[in-house]
Amino acid sequence: MFGKRTLSTGTLILLLALVMTACVAPQAAPAGEQAAPSGEQAQAGGGKLEVFSWWTSGGEAAALQALFDVYSARYPNVEIINATVAGGGGSAARPVLQTRLAGGDVPDTWQVHPGYELLGQYVEPGYVEPVTSLYQEEGWEAVVPEALRAMMTKDGELYQVTVGVHRGNGFWYNKKLLAENGIEIGATLSVDEFFAIAEQLKAAGVTPLCVGDSGIWASAQLFENTLLGVIGPERYNGLWDGSVRFDEPDVKQAMEVYGRMLDYQNDDHAALSWDQAVKKLMDGGCAFNSMGDWAYGEFVNAGKVDNEDFGWVSHPGTDGSFMIVADGFVLGNGAPNRENTINWLRVIGGKEAQEAFNPLKGSICARTDCDRAKFGPYHNWSMDSFAKDALVPTVVHGSAAPADFQQALNDAVTVFVVDKNVDAFANALVAAAQSSGFGR
Ligand code: GAL
What we know:
D-Maltodextrin-Binding Protein, domain 2, three-stranded antiparallel beta sheet, 17 helices, 13 strands, about 45% helix, globular
């Protein structure tokens, strides 16, 4: 079994791998990558395929459909059941999934993040089958970065096929609104620069920051990004192996900065979902939004143009880091439509599907051989960042720490946004890290 102690050690190895292997250079495709899959003959007869996810926002749904389209072109007789549970970040979907898994009602395949979410919630209880042979058959070990494979591996077996890698520490802005206020953003934005601009905007009657935290994870992500920006990637990684405590001075300073940022958010933040906050930004209701680049999917779905309607920088202070929020799918143990599912994984791990999906989703390919010409300015910027920056795992989206810590963080954030009590916030996270087995 995959006990807490083993998970901590595994995470340490993972984090080392992440920091040390930030060296992916997208290259030309190897010949024959799109060869016809060997298992497809078995599916000539059709049947079904249930795909479980939380991709329901405009951009998310469009990108998911692109995956379905590539699959259906190869397997036209398979009926796809699009099993979605709305709620950004999977906050509503995961409990539904857990109930189904516990009751033996296994979806064929479901959306998952690598790291603790995959290994702790699905591999450890035996809910998924390994897919290592698929990697071997398709030659994916040569094109999927080692840093990603390490996050999906347990005891030498791979358990996930990743379709895209989001950059979690995005900071998006309404370019026209800022220009109207005489503000131009450079290549990077420091914490101090952000606060100076926020003051200026506030004085002009413009809401500086849009937040949509009807799902509290969105505010937790604002904190996660701010934490990375204030303490830097090495110290951030140290939080997950216990070498850094949540009550150390720089971490508390990050909490203070987060609290100050909340002073500039929209009054209706708690009534909005993450994508409604992005829409508010597009509509000129606020200037900035801190969000993973699934926000890009909303811009593109609304017909907005990179560097004209919207711009981006790294979340203040996080330039030089790439917060990994990778999305993939698994093979359910007991999947009712096993062959169809294996072919689904085969398709979404391939270049064609990833080149169709990621431009709409905002993430970059999980393989190094996608054609850069098929991606616009934002994606090329993100690919460069992935290749050269420090890679760090998200806690808010389940990769860096066990699910009980993720929940405790959401709970602590829920309290902090109201009371702004840094000591209580720090103490709650110290206790949660200890009880999750990685904190000291
Ligand atoms: C993340 C997921 C992204 C995006 C986001 C908002 O957990 O990795 O693909 O869907 O939630 O729903």
